[in-house]
Amino acid sequence: MGYVTGVGLTPFGKLPGRTTLDLMSEAAAAALADAELERADVDGLLCAYSTTFPHLMLSTTFVEHFGLNPAYAHSVLVGGATGFAMAMLAHTLVEARVARNVLVVAGENRLTAQSRDAAVQTLAQVGHSEYEVPLGATIPAYYALVASRYMHEHGTTEADLAELAVLMRRNAMRHPGAQFREPVTAQEVLSSKPIASPLKLLDCCPVSDGGVAFVIGREPTSAARVRIRGAGQAHTHQYVTGAPSLTQFGAKASVERALGRAAIELSDVRYAAIYDSFTITLTILLEEIGLAARGQAGDKVRGGYFDRDGPLPLNTHGGLLSYGHCGAGGAMAHLVEAQLQMTGRAAGRQVKDASVALLHGDGGVLSSHCSLVMETQ
Amino acid sequence: MTNASALRDWTTGGEGIAFQSCRACSHRWYFRREFCPRCGSDWPSDQQASGLGTVHAVTLVTRAPSEELRVHAPYLIVLVDADEGFRLMAHGARELRIGARVRCRYISFGGRLIPFFDLA
Is B108 helix (H, G, I), strand (E, B) or coil? Predict the structure, then answer.
C-alpha cells in the first residue's frame, strides 16, 4: 500500500510573478521536506498539466528544472480528477515495486498569467469543439445544464446549493492560505452575480494561482502514518451532450470500487474530501456517493452534519469554492488537507477523528471520476 | 437512408441537424463518427432530424466567454431530446422550461448559424 509520506501546499489566490514551474517547485520542495526525503530519493514523478504552460513533456521539464533523476515519469490528464488519479497511480506503482518514492506535483499561475476571458475560454474547451463550444457554452454552463435537470428531478433549490458555498467559506476562514476568507451568508450567495442559471458567482469556484505536491512511498519515511487503502475510477463520457444521464454519474461506481478494494463500508468513513468546482458538483457527488440522500445535501449541511465538529467533516480547508482552484492542483489540496487532518497537524481546523478518509474527484462535466480511501495506521 | 453529402447540418453551415443511426443495432447518436459507438459496426447511416424535440435541461448564460459573444448575452442554452432519439445542445427562447415541446429554426450567433428552439 502507498503511504502519503509528505505534503506541500502553497497559498492559493493571486501570486503575481510566479510561473507554473515556480509553483510546482515550491510545493515539491515542501512535500519532500515534509516526507524527510532528498531529491535523490525520488525515483518516480507524476505531473499533471498547466493551461498557462502547455508543454508536451511537463514531467521531464520538471525533472530538469527541479533537479531529479527518476526511473519513472510522465503526466496524467483527466481534468479535475487528475490529482486523485495520480495518487491512485502512485499507490499502484509503489505496490508493484516500480518505484519507492513517487513525487506527485501540480501547479499553475492560472489567475495572474492570463485574462479572465482567456481562462474561461481555455476551460470551455473540455466541451465539444464543433457541437458545444460554438454555442457560447462555458464550464459553468455545462454544469448549469446538469444542475437544472438534477434540481428538476430531486427538488434541490438554489438555497440548498448556497448552503454548500457558505460551509466551504466558513472552513476557509480557518486556513491562512485560502483565497477567500471573508464570511458569506446564504443570502449573499443567492444574490451574487448571475453566471449561468441556476449558478451564481458564489456557486462557482474561483480561478487561482497555486501549487500542490505530495509524496507516495512504499514505506513511511516520516512520522506520518497515512496510507492509501483502496482506490477506484469510473469514466462514462466526456461531453455533457453525450452523458448517459444528467442525474446519475460515475461517482457511485468509482467509490464502490475504492471501498471494495479497501474492504470497508461507507459508514466507516470519518472525513470526506469531495470535489466542489460548483455547489451543484458537491451536491451531486455527496448524494450520489450516498453521504446524503437525493435532494437532501443542503438540509444536511444546514443541520451541521458536515461541520468541522460534526459527524462527517468535509473539505476543512475550504475546498475549491473558497481555498481556490489552480487546475490539477485544486483537488490535490483536498488530499493535503486530509493528510494533515489524519496526522493531527491541521492546527485550528483539526477534527476529532479523521482516521478513515474518503476522497472523490471528477473531471470534465462529471465525466472522469476517481476515488481514494485513506487510513491512519 | 440519406446520402451524407446531401444532409444539411449546422456544424457545416447548413440549416439542419444531422445525426447517425446504426444499421446493425439501431442505436442513434449525434456526434459524427465512422462507426457505431455501441456495437462497433462500421456502416452507420446518416440521417436528417425533423427539428422537433423536448427540452431536457436549460441554462441562461449571463457570463459569455468572449467580447465577441458578450453582445448576445444573456442567451439560453438548452439540451433537447430530439424526437429521433438523440440529444443535442442548442439555443432557445427565454420562456423554455424543462419538458417543453420545441421546434428548431436557425439563427446567427458569433458569425455562424446555430440551432435555436422555440415552443412547438
Answer: strand
Does residue B108 share a domain with residue B77?
A: yes
B44 shares its domain with B74: no
Q: Does any domain span residue A277? A: yes
B113 at interface of A, judged by CB pairs closer than 8 A? no
**Smallest CA–CA distance from B114 into chain A, residue:** A135
**Looking at the 3D structure of chain B, how many domains does it have?**
2
Question: Which residues of chain B lie closer than 8 angstroms to A239, CB-CB?
Answer: 31
Look at the pTM and tell me if it is higher than 0.95.
yes
The structural domain count of chain A equals 1
Mean pLDDT of A242-265: 97
For the packed helices A279-289 and A158-172, what is the interaxial angle rounded to 10 degrees? 100
- Which of these, A371, A240, A330, lies nearest to A51 by C-alpha position? A330
Q: Which pLDDT does position B1 carry in this prediction?
A: 47
Is residue A360 a part of any domain in this protein?
A: yes
